[in-house]
Design brief:
By secondary structure, the protein is an alpha+beta fold. It contains 7 helices and 7 strands. Helix 3 packs across helix 5.
Length: about 220
């Protein structure tokens, strides 16, 4: 299979995985809202039969509904940003924003693995010119690998660093890296690394996975 077929297959799998996870979250929110609306309906029926309405209970239910609407709005905004990743093949992006978006979109998948993420932002903006969708796909694949390498600490540190002509994304505290690194990177990560002109290294002593990206992919095309 050519690297372009591999990238297409990986991209479709990634888009499907994120879409399924997000739709599951939205479905849960709608179920909660429906349950709260049912409670209000019950209170109204009880009041029609002579029971007094409790304004405080109604207020709490409405506040709960409002929180769920806000949560759903945040999820929809994130999936909207994700969908627009394919608008431009190459553009300037800020790595911390990209990392945050991938983590938010995959939060349910991360929670299922019972691993905590420590995001360490620097004050400096980490701007690079790259392919946004392919980068997000690569970050997810590396994060998915890092989740398996977290070990007993169940904690992963993640940060982005801007250097003179490159930028780096670090996944550290990978206590189980030695046991899982033999199967990584796969052909999917390798194909994405090639198209992004990026490098991936693992340091078993430092328990770290490192992605090195060019500051401007156009300068290498």
């Amino acid at each position: 299979m050519s690297k372009y077929n591999i990238i297409s297959e990986s991209g479709l799998e990634f888009f499907g995985l994120i879409s399924a996870s997000v739709s599951h979250d939205i479905k849960n929110i709608l179920a909660i809202i429906n349950e709260k609306a049912g409670l209000i309906d019950d209170f109204i029926l009880m009041s029609e039969k002579g029971s007094p309405l409790n304004p405080e209970r109604i207020k709490i239910i409405i506040e709960n509904i409002t929180k769920q609407v806000q949560r759903a709005n945040g999820i929809v905004n994130n999936i909207n940003k994700f969908a627009h990743s394919v608008d431009n093949y190459v553009k300037i992006v800020e790595l911390n924003e990209i990392l945050n978006l991938v983590i938010k979109l995959s939060s349910r998948l991360i929670a299922m693995r019972n691993v905590n993420l420590e995001i360490r932002h620097t004050e400096e903006m980490v701007n690079i010119r790259t392919s946004p969708f392919f980068l997000k796909n690569l970050i997810w694949l590396c994060l998915d690998f890092a989740l398996n390498a977290a070990g007993s600490s169940k904690t992963i540190g993640i940060n982005a660093i801007r250097l003179e002509k490159t930028a780096k994304i670090q996944f550290n505290q990978l206590d189980n890296l030695t046991n899982v690194s033999m199967t990584f990177p796969t052909e999917k990560e390798t194909a994405l690394l090639n198209i992004l002109h990026a490098d991936l290294t693992t340091d078993q002593q430092a328990k770290e996975l490192l992605i090195t990206l060019p500051g401007d992919i156009n300068s290498l095309v």
